[in-house]
Amino acid sequence: MKSRLEEIRAESIAALREAASPEMLEQLRQTYLGKKGRLTELLKGLGKLSPEERKQMGQLANEVKNLFSNAMETRKEELLEQASLLASHPDLTIPGLSVATGGLHPITQMCYDLNDSFRSLNFEIFEEDEITSELFAFDYLNFPPDHPARDSMDTYWIEGTENKEGAKRHCLRPHLTGGSVRYLKEHGAPARFVYPGRVYRNEATDARHERAFFQYEALIVDRDFSFSSGLVLVSTILERVFGRDVPVRMRAGFFPFVEPGFEIDMQCQVCQGQGCTVCHHSGWIEVMPGGSPHPNVLRAAGLDPDIWSGFYINIGLDRLVMMRYGIDDVRLFHSADLRFLQQFK
Ligand SMILES: [Zn+2]
């Protein structure tokens, strides 16, 4: 009887491992433990054994029964797990869902493109804090003490930072140019660098003006730097950004921190110079004021104006983006209207 019990144990466990469905497991339970099952039948012979043998065989039979039951439970769980895996298995033939990846804001993209162009011409990229002082925003830049830009109608002053001299008031930077003096004070000359960022003006908004906007300024300081070299630089940058030659023209301009000053206009790319509402039907868009740093600015930066000269350009990022995509209202860039922004992904 012992050998037959051992035989049943080995056979039944092997059979359970092979079982591929809950129905087959139930069938095996019947085969071994059912009313006419093989183990049940075998145990009917226990009565013919001696009490000693009956005890031993009874114990062994219980072991075989428990082993079988445990193995059956384990197999049942395995089968359930397989079934649920199969049920959750993705159908690879279904078309995928598109993932929302987002994209760069068109102004950020323009800023990066300009960074690339300037970097390729050996410019360094410099960043300055958005809060600056009257010293850097106006005094160092040759703005006279009564200049209207110092007025709170134009500049956001920070309350509680005034002092008697008036030169140390803090403000949101109304332009980037103060950053150039800061850079030159730290690094000296010769220098070529760009310093992009957001600037703040306390003014009424319209289709071409915003209270906060991005600027992108560049400065070269060197010995005998000529305007014609500057104009070549401007054409090179515009050609890289727009991927084609963009006609430019230079006019005289006035800013306190330059001497002489100029305005660079580019051909309106919305109408290709034909005239449209964006360019006020002139065919030109003012994109880059600039000039040669004023001797007082060079002195403020610790440089001798008899030795050093330079070339400032302040690139209107918003304007360039308007030109790139033919957009006619600058306020759209800051409107956070996703329907507008998603077009640039
Ligand atoms: Zn136009």
Your description of this structure?
This protein folds into 2 domains: 2-88; 106-344, BirA Bifunctional Protein, domain 2 (2-Layer Sandwich), CATH 3.30.930. The chain has helices at residues 2-18, 22-33, 38-43, 51-88, 106-120, 134-139, 178-187, 227-242, 295-300, 317-325, 338-341, and strands at 124-125, 131-133, 170-172, 191-200, 212-222, 248-253, 258-267, 284-293, 309-316. The protein has 345 residues and is α+β, with helices and mostly antiparallel strands. Helices cover 40% and strands 18% of the residues. Zinc ion (ZN) binds next to loops.
Keyphrases for this structure?
BirA Bifunctional Protein, domain 2, single chain, 2 domains, alpha+beta, 345 residues, 18% strand, binds zinc ion, seven-stranded mixed sheet
CATH architectural category of the largest domain:
2-Layer Sandwich
Bound molecules: zinc ion
The total of helices stands at 11
| Unreliable sequence segments | none
CATH topology (fold) name of the largest domain: BirA Bifunctional Protein, domain 2
Strand order of the largest sheet: 1-4-5-9-8-7-6
* Residues in β-strands, percent: 15-25%
The main pleated sheet reads as: 7 strands, mixed
How does the overall form come out from the CA principal axes? Answer: rod-shaped
Number of strands: 9
Structural class: alpha+beta
Q: Please, what is the average pLDDT? A: 86
Question: What is the share of helical residues?
Answer: 40-55%
